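Trying the structure run again after the queue cleared.
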Amino acid sequence: MKFDRYAIYHSFAPAPWSDWAVGWLGWDMSTGRAAPPPHDLPLDPEPLTRTPRRYGLHATLKPPFRLASGQTPEALRIAVAAFCADHAPVPVGRLRPVALGRFLALMPQTQTTELTDLAARIVRGFDRFRAPLTDAELTRRRAARLSSAQQDNLFRWGYPHVMDAFRYHITLTDRLGDDTRAMALSVLDAQLAPRLPHCLMLDALSLVGEDTEGRFHLLARHPLTG
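Done. Tokens:
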């Protein structure tokens, strides 16, 4: 399969909460197939999740990028495995469904310094694999309201929400209107929140690839064993 872009994610082993959330989004990266929705939902998640569905259930660590000239997918895979062998797991903490702007996401109640630092190491450590942004990509990103620090990140790292601007989150919906967002949040509070682990660990990194239709696939998942 041909992949246009690659990314490094925190994706998740099968568990009651992650199985439910994969069904909510409707796409399973690990199988490369659509996932059926959870049973007994009071609303249809399909129209609420069209954008995040193609990315799968994940938290972004190294945002999607095209490979730089001279780099190969195999070299990237080897580098991810080597990084994981040198770094230990870090706690994410207790997740909860929250409104993040106009969309809904899972976020930790507090973000630890260890998590922020590891995410920064990942962004720096794999930047040699990233092709520079095109003028069109820069223009599209700069159209958003970015702080001066976020604009610096965009030019240096190819994405605004990294380094000190990084906020660990697992996106669960598109941008929604107020009423729809409140209804979806009540469903997530009732059905997903009780399944969430008391302390999620970032214990593995996942290398993923984006196919020509814009869907992401799990290519390799390496435990953090350093």
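The longest helix spans residues 178-192. Worth checking whether this holds up in the mutant runs.
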